[in-house]
Structure formats: C-alpha cells, structure tokens
Amino acid sequence: MSPGLCFVPDKTTNIVIFTGTIESISMIPAIGVCIVAYNQQSFIGECIESVLNQQSDYRIVMFIGDDCSTDGTYSVCQRYRDLNPDLIQLMRNERNLGLVANTMNVLQRIQRAGCDYVAFLDGDDYWTDPLKIRKQVSFLENNPGYGLVHTRIKNEKARRDVPDGDVAGIILDYLEKYMRNCTVLFRSELLNYINFQEISSRGFLVCDWIIYTIFSKHKAWFKYFDDETACWRSGHESVSNPASFAKAVQYQENGLLQWRYLAELFPEDFRDVERNAAAYMYFKMFDLAFQFNQFSIAHQLAENFHAYEEHNKSLTFRMKRNAAQTKPAFYIFRAMKKIIKSSESAYFKCSVFVLQTFGSAYQYWQNISRQS
Length: 372
Hints:
2 domains, 8-stranded mixed beta sheet
C-alpha cells in the first residue's frame, strides 16, 4: 500500500509544503492546475467546480495556494479538499507573500510532483468548457514541436488572425492581443527555464507575461484554439484590474520592471526598453486619465504630446488629444464610449465629428486669446 501524503510547515518560506515518498509517485497527476487565491471566497468554489467538471482520461490535480486569506477562502478550499483528497493539494501561506511569490511556490510544487502539463487558473476565474484539458493535452501529445496552448475567453470575439508557432519575435504584442492566462496549458519541462527565486524577489505584481516570454525565447511554439474555454472575471478589483488611477499607474510602472528583467535575460531582444520607457508611460497614463475620469491629468499630458508624437501617430491618439483640450470635449468623448457600445463604427464616426468640432473651436478660442 502506498503511504499517505502529508503536509509539513516550512519555517523558511512560511508556507505549507506537500511532501511524500518515492512510493507515492504513482499517485502524482499528469496535469497540475496552478490555482492561486487570496480573499476570493465568493469565487473560489466555482473555480474548483469547473476543474472537477473536466471530462478527461488524464489525471488532473489542483494545486491551490491560499495566500493567507482573511475571509473564508481557505475554508471553502478545505471543504473541497476533504471531499476530493486525491484531486486537490492545498497549501496555505502563514503570511501574505503576494501574487507572484505565491504563484512561484505553487509552480515549484507542481514541478516537484512530476506533472507532465501545467494549466493556469486564478481563484476568481473558472473554466467553461468541460473538454478544455482533453483537447489541449491531446494537441500537445500529437504535436511535439508545440509547448503551449491557449484559447479565447467568454464573451471575447472569435478571431482567425492569431499567429501560430514561433512567436518569439512578436511576443509582447502577441501577449497583449491574444493571451488570456486562465486558458493556458503548457508542457511542464518549460518550467526548467524559470528562475523561481529570482522572479519572486523582484517585486513584480504579476508574472504571467514574464513566464510566457521566457517560454517563447526557448523555442516553445504557441498554439491558439478559437474556442471559448474559460471566464475571466474583470468586474471586481484585482491586481490587474485596479480600482483607482494611482494603483493603475503603479501597475503600469511595474510592467516596466518586468521589461527590464527581460532585458537582462534577452538583451538583444529588449535593448530599446529604456529608450522607450518614457513614451510607454506617457501613453499608458494618457489612456488611464480617460479611463478614470482625470481631466486635469489628461489635459496636462496633452500639452506635452509633441515630445512623444513620433511614437504614436494613430487617429485614436489624436482624437483623445483633442478631447483633452477642454472639459466638455473630454466628458463627451467618455460618454460616447459608454453609450455607443453596440457599434464601434458609429462610435468612431461620432467621435471624429465631435472632436473635430471641438478641436476647431478650441483653436479658434486660442487665436482670439492671442489677439486680445
């Protein structure tokens, strides 16, 4: 009889570690689902249920890292673990480590367990397709040149233009446009390229883009399925969905820290990070000023657009720049974006007309002011 699995506290990392002996290897799953959770009592049950509902011949085990939640998140996880002891390995941090350190710890547990594949699913998201794991693992089993599979999420438009295969040369653009963390599954051997301790110590707020960039630079081909397999909740506050302008700016500044780390690893591919950093933050802050209704900040940034105009010549930027000249134009621009959601074309045409009108009026007012 194989010995039981046990958990012991680790004094150095303040987490609870899964331990076992060599006889328990036969119990190790083929697919490890990395679930990190913090104060997600309202969501974690649906997250776990969506994994339990997977219809697959592969052994799927959840590795759940609770980051010292102060609500009932851990209690919910315990109930599910007690009902499914062979399918859930539960770890609780004795102090809050943060999203990145928590993720790195869970990934190390999965790696040590000897899983063949790893899937990501945050505690506030859930899978919608009961065949998700079966389809993704089947593809990778039959296509050894590929290392990672991902899909679209609930309510996301179908798309046929997603690049396939080697995306290392366009990885940052690819990640921003196409990758949704809760849909990803990859080969576990790719974790050999991840420096868990280094990433944990850098102060990053998130780490998914770093992980996927490293994978792509080590020749892992990416495959996109135009299927809906997961729901990414975005209506509540989280690290990647901040509720204030200040937190949103902090999140974007943290993105630069990640770029700089990648520049250390791949200097030839990220050598322009510092040169483009100021322009990156300018345009991000300009967008955030509109998102969080910060007219004074948008207006101030619009006055300095000449320093960064060469980095962005898009019509959308010019429209926002005109809208930031006066409060009425600013608020009309924001209102139209909310009202005309059903037709992007109608929104675009109305925005151009209104902002051209306000831009002309503003220019006329400036001329009058200079003459007087």
